[in-house]
Automatic annotation (TrEMBL):
The electron transfer flavoprotein serves as a specific electron acceptor for other dehydrogenases. It transfers the electrons to the main respiratory chain via ETF-ubiquinone oxidoreductase (ETF dehydrogenase). Its cofactor is AMP. Gene3D superfamilies: HUPs. It comes from Maribrevibacterium harenarium. It comes from the Bacteria. This is Electron transfer flavoprotein subunit beta. SMART domains: ETF. Pfam families: ETF (PF01012).
Amino acid sequence: MKVLVAVKRVVDYNVKVRVKNDGSGVDLTNVKMSINPFDEIAVEEAVRLKEAGKVDEVVLVSIGSAKSEETLRTGLAMGADRGILVNTDDLAVEPLAVAKILQKVTEKEQPSLVILGKQAIDDDCNQTGQMLSALMNWPQGTFASEVALDDTQVTVTREVDGGLQTVKLSLPAVVTTDLRLNEPRFASLPNIMKAKKKPVDKLTPAELGLGEGDIKPRLEIVQTQEPAKRQAGIKVVTVAELVDKLKNEAGVL
Ligand code: AMP
């Protein structure tokens, strides 16, 4: 059985992002980029399924500039077998465009399971997996905190408001990962070296049969703003003063 995993190159989660002076977006100059954390969990899950003998091949796909190859290499060092880079240069690809590209790759690769992150931490869209499932007309199990795979179906425990929901999907299917699904491994140095030699196919949306209209942005970013700065606090000397301020200034008592 083959599993396809979608991995996105995003600003590292430890970086405090800055907005460009003209408010047109986030400044990416000299910023550390990494694999999207939810996608790292997706790769880990696929590799564990392979180690358990349930999956024969783990294929990664990333859509973006040529630099997304680094993201693929990170996943390959964790144990995936090969990568596919769909080069969209610096064009901003929105979830629908990504989903259409993933649809073409899925049709070409014919995996039994596609695993994506529940959301990319740069756009926080939480849309691509759902859109891919709709385009493929495959069942979806989103926000997975547990995945059990057998030959014909996958059982997904989902993190929903106030509890867990378990769904059974017949294969082929789309699964998106939540934070508690697993703890991704650190790639060892020998595996990082080995990953440099693993194959990465390079494709363009046109080679997958997609036109400009399929991938062009549909949204216009009007403005990007930093969150409002926190106001400085004050020190009070007595409890009575605190209660007075809460009552008469803050109005919360
Ligand atoms: P989003 O809908 O943008 O929040 O992204 C959800 C998931 O879709 C991510 O966690 C990735 O698995 C996948 N995805 C989104 N954009 C890309 C991309 N450019 N390349 C590869 N996978 C992507």
